[in-house]
Amino acid sequence: MVAAIHDPEARAVLVNQLKLVLALSGIERGWALLWPALHGLQILWIGTLAWAVASRRLMLWPAILAATPALYLGAHVLYQAQGHYPRHILAGHFMMGAVAAMLVFAASRRSA
Questions:
Q1: Which alpha helices (H) appear in 1-112, and where do they start and end?
Q2: Distance CA 28, CA 49 (A)
Q3: 38 or 84, higher pLDDT
Q4: Are 76 and 89 in contact (CB under 8 A)?
């Protein structure tokens, strides 16, 4: 990953891996219906994290759990994402939805 700063070939490989992990490319025709759902989960997760940080409702254990999807998908940036596509990539995206639900639930319990 450090080589991607100076090496255009390494940068191209890194960008391709990120596209695969974030479902920006590489989705086969039969899986095309997943594209909106995966991007919806990404938007939901990022929006929920932004809301939790802005409203200062993020406690320590939810913050650690909130990083789980990024850690889960981040491992596939370093390894060949296409070999694990789609099951591990889908699991990371499903975790985004679970974390978003958990953060909203934890915040609502704290405010009640």
A1: 8-21, 34-54, 60-66, 68-78, 87-111
A2: 30
A3: 38
A4: yes
